[in-house]
Design a protein that fits this description.
Chain A: It comes from Deminuibacter soli. Chain A: This is Zf-HC2 domain-containing protein. Chain B: Keywords: DNA-binding, Sigma factor, Transcription, Transcription regulation. Chain B: Residues 10-75 form the RNA polymerase sigma-70 region domain. The complex is a heterodimer of chains A (81) and B (184). Chain A is mainly alpha-helical and 81 residues long. Chain A has four helices and no strands. Chain A has one domain (1-61). Helices cover 70% and strands 0% of the residues of chain A. In chain A, helix 1 packs across helix 2 and helix 1 packs parallel to helix 3. With 184 residues, chain B is mostly helical. Chain B is 65% helix and 0% strand. The chains are: A mainly alpha (81), B mainly alpha (184). At the A-B interface, helix 1, helix 3 and helix 4 of A face helix 1, helix 2, helix 4, helix 5 and helix 7 of B.
């Protein structure tokens, strides 16, 4: 692999780095790319923020069964033995 | 089924389980079915429930398995030809960001959490726009916290497909959140 990597590769390396799936050489190339690429530095921070938010998504949900749906659910459950 | 216990479960846990399933499957009918199947499976296995974990966590565990099963079946229908692999949207041929996908500064502290309910609605909408396989990879990885090896096994994809799908999902979701929330 070339010493200079593209933004496509760098953004993929950023995700692979979260899973500790980069070789020493790949991590070095990623660091070098990030040193001069403002957009990929932003991508890295934003990707990590999205990871944290996605993990908590259901805690912020307000979804609920309607009364009708709940009755239907109860009826289905009582019919299934 | 014995009425009172089921009534109690439905009253106490059905909304909680629906909230867990919905952002993962993005379809209310499927989510409702999964919740129903969870209660049925729990009832059938009630003799095996020893109270080592709470009833609530036991139901969560059953639902999680139902969701993974749902993904396994859905992926089986999809992965024969892997139509989602091959197209590239966010990068130019030379590997540079396309102008419409340039990450822009969001003007926030990236280390802070986000509490706004509306943000999570936008996140859910953006996620639901992902293609099926991308969405399943994203869900298993970031919502369920599954290991990549397990994700590949369940969805019948190779590690290299996994990285392509996860990469595209995250790039697309980032752009969508930027347009519809952070810089709207």
């Amino acid at each position: 692999m070339k010493w200079i990597i593209s933004c496509r590769d760098a953004s993929k390396f950023i995700l692979q780095d979260e899973e500790k799936k980069l070789t020493v050489g790949e991590r070095r190339r990623l660091r070098f790319h990030l040193a001069f690429c403002y957009m990929c530095r932003l991508f890295s921070k934003q990707a990590k923020l999205i990871t944290r938010c996605a993990h908590d998504a259901h805690e912020h949900s307000t979804a609920a069964f309607s009364e009708d749906e709940k009755q239907q659910l109860l009826q289905n459950l009582n019919n299934s033995h | 089924m014995a009425g009172s216990k089921i009534d109690e479960w439905v009253m106490q846990y059905s909304d909680m389980l629906l909230r867990y399933a919905l952002p993962r499957v993005h379809d209310r009918e499927i989510a409702k079915d999964l919740v129903q199947e969870t209660f049925v499976a729990a009832w059938r296995n009630i003799d095996h429930f020893r109270g080592e974990i709470s009833e609530k966590n036991w139901l969560y565990t059953i639902l999680k398995n139902k969701i993974i099963d749902h993904f396994r079946k859905a992926a089986n229908r999809l992965t024969d030809s892997l139509p989602e692999i091959g197209e590239e949207t966010a990068f130019r041929n030379n590997g540079h960001w396309k102008s419409e996908n340039y990450p822009a500064a969001w003007g926030i502290d990236y280390n802070q959490g986000i509490e706004s309910k509306e943000f999570y609605e936008v996140l859910d909408q953006c996620k639901s726009k992902l293609k099926d396989l991308q969405n399943m990879v994203f869900t298993m990885k970031y919502l369920e916290g599954a290991a990549s090896e397990e994700i590949c096994k369940v969805l019948h994809i190779t590690p290299s497909n996994y990285w392509v799908l996860l990469h595209r999902a995250k790039v697309q979701l980032r752009s969508c959140l930027e347009k519809n929330w952070f810089l709207r």
